[in-house]
Amino acid sequence: MESQQSSVDAVQKLDGFATRLETPCGSGSMVWRKWGEGPPLVLLHGGHGAWTHWIRNIPYYAASYTVWAPDLPGHGESATPERTDSGDTIAEVIATGLRMLLADEAPLDVVGFSLGAVLATYLAAVAPELVRRLILVDPGGLGTPLGDVRMASFRGLTEPAEITAAHRQNLLTVMIRHPETIDALALHVQATNVALCRINPRPIVMPDLLLKALVRTETPVDAIWGELDNPHPDPEHQRAALARYRPHLRFRVVEDAGHWNMYERPEGFHRALDDLLALGPGNHAG
Prior knowledge:
CATH superfamily: Alpha/Beta hydrolase fold, catalytic domain
Structural class: alpha/beta
CATH class: Alpha Beta
CATH architecture: 3-Layer(aba) Sandwich
Order of helices and strands: HEEEHEHEHEHHHHEHEHH
Oligomer: single chain
Number of helices: 11
Distance between the termini: 53 Å
Number of strands: 8
Low-confidence stretches: none
Radius of gyration: 18 Å
Largest sheet: 8 strands, mixed
Strand content: 15-25%
Number of domains: 1
Strand order of the largest sheet: 1-2-4-3-5-6-7-8
Shape: globular
């Protein structure tokens, strides 16, 4: 119980330091949070997630940047968009928010994780003036073979211990490679975010919809990959898929980490992202 409460407290504490803003989304609003001061850095979370996918990274980057971490449309506290099966529609909602909040600072560096990387690519396609460069972290939509991602079902589960075990299993299946790195905070983030998600990512991701969005933009692209990513295995295979469209792609691998590598191995992720941010945008469409 103490570890569960400490996880709740950790989320609430970081949330308490944020400035919360809202922009239009569907019949409601898209919720944005920002921390820190400095150049803007936009972080887009993964599917069935929320801003808390970045909970181990926001304090680090807020020391040097103004970190913007929204709840994507249909996730967390953000409203459901008018269409949930259109990457362009969702990207337009994000673009509207960025124009309202960061128009004077565009173009921007956008870092997207998993679904967030796919939506970041749509964003660059529909609003290229807003995106200075993309840094894609373990996205789908590359037309590459999937790993074994059979998920535990919650059907019929009523006991808290059974529900927690299912969340733990799904974290191991999709997000995290090493069981010992699934702590109370990871379980709390997973359980909270999954319950709030109202979007099925498949129609806007699979099988190769990131690549189809990528050919619509000349925005520079770099990428970071977890060495042991299960949904999208073999970093070299993923690099090759992206390099067909960005031959000079800079690609970094976070060692000994799964799909959610910024949580499982934050220090390794920070080294990779710091390196790419320091280099600046440098490649162009092939």
